[in-house]
Specification:
The structure is a single chain. With 343 residues, the chain is an all-alpha fold. 34% of the residues lie in helices and 1% in strands. It has 12 helices and 2 strands; from the N terminus they run H-H-H-H-H-H-H-H-E-H-E-H-H-H. Strands 1-2 form a two-stranded antiparallel ribbon.
């Protein structure tokens, strides 16, 4: 009898653990529990479809020229690669490089300075920024309510055609939450499905000895903020998180980005100053600038030989997840999105 009760208990716990996310988004084995509360916004394919359509629709911008995908391209791990800083309406240029988007359910802050602490409202930041989309949520909702396409999509999801800001933002969050990258060569090696080459294996050892304080496995970010010793850009004069907190202790602190899919997500750093991984590694070996808020992990430069640097890059390339980057479910939804220029 006790054995039966124990088996039922284990089954129930396993069921709860599985349902804590959704059949639409599986938690990778061995990963920590997501930070996002899926119970309050349960994943639903119809709502994900809305979020995906909105992500690719320039209707979100003031002049219908800029969509989320303009700066977050699926083929490049949901960031841009053709310029250092984000571009917006009217050929305006922002002040930061767009961050790559993936594994967002495991994060509690968003943007380089952590200005947003809930993915359900993250879209408001670029939407309202005059150098990005230059819109306002009220007008966007008005445009969506005049769109037969979105009336139909919202009816499919909610059984009515009511379109409001809360529903819109929750649907956008649902799509972004499904952007899970966990099937790189590294992941397959961890599951004993593949093996590292000798060069990749040595690079992994180098990585674990020098990089894991900030780029912690399996997310390859600790999701915190750090000053990594970059000399401040004299033109942008970006002091990072301090702009949000007004705390001098946060000067030059930026969110630690994930290294997953780093092969695709150049240029690197918050201002896109480095185009190559070799430049990034050279920064950590001989380019760190000391300051009062410099990360304690970087007080001493990282000592690497030329061969070590090559091996480290070889390992970093094992974090590329082609299944994620080229997943058709993440791409422009031509099967559901009818381009609209309504203003």
């Amino acid at each position: 009898m006790k054995k039966i009760i124990y088996i039922l208990f284990i089954f129930f716990v396993g069921l709860v653990s599985f349902q804590s996310i959704s059949p639409l988004m599986q938690q990778p084995k061995g990963w920590p529990k997501p930070q996002y509360n899926f119970a309050e916004n349960k994943l639903n394919q119809a709502k994900i479809n809305i979020g995906r359509a909105l992500f690719y629709d320039a209707i979100l911008s003031k002049d219908s020229t800029i969509s989320c995908a303009s700066c977050h391209l699926s083929y490049t791990a949901f960031t841009h690669v053709d310029h250092a800083l984000s571009h917006g309406i009217g050929d305006s240029i922002g002040k930061r490089n767009s961050p790559a988007l993936m594994n967002l359910a495991w994060q509690t802050s968003f943007m380089w300075d952590g200005a947003v602490n809930n993915i359900e409202v993250q879209a408001l930041a670029p939407l309202h920024d005059i150098k990005e989309m230059g819109e306002n949520i009220t007008h966007v909702v008005e445009k969506l309510n005049r769109s037969p396409l979105y009336q139909q999509l919202f009816y499919q999801a909610y059984k009515d055609s009511i379109i409001n800001s809360q529903r819109m933002l929750k649907c956008m969050a649902q799509f972004m939450l499904t952007l899970v990258s966990a099937n790189s060569k590294y992941d397959k090696v961890m599951k004993q499905q593949e093996t590292f080459t000798a060069q990749e294996k040595n690079g992994y050892i180098i990585f674990k000895n020098n990089c894991t304080t900030c780029h912690t496995e399996p997310l390859f970010t600790n999701t915190k903020f750090a000053n990594n010793g970059l000399p401040i850009d004299t033109v942008l004069k970006d002091f990072g998180r301090m702009k949000i907190t007004n705390n001098a202790a946060d000067s030059l602190l930026f969110k630690v980005p994930t290294l997953r899919n780093i092969e695709y997500s150049f240029p690197y750093m918050h201002d896109g100053r480095f185009k190559k991984l070799s430049q990034v590694i050279n920064h950590y070996t001989n380019g760190i600038q000391a300051s009062a808020t410099l990360s304690s992990a970087l007080k001493k430069p990282i000592a690497l030989s030329a061969n070590d640097k090559v091996d480290l890059i070889a390992f970093l390339l094992t974090l590329s997840d082609k299944e994620f980057v080229f997943n058709p479910k993440h791409q422009y939804p031509k099967e559901i999105l009818i381009p609209t220029k309504e203003k």
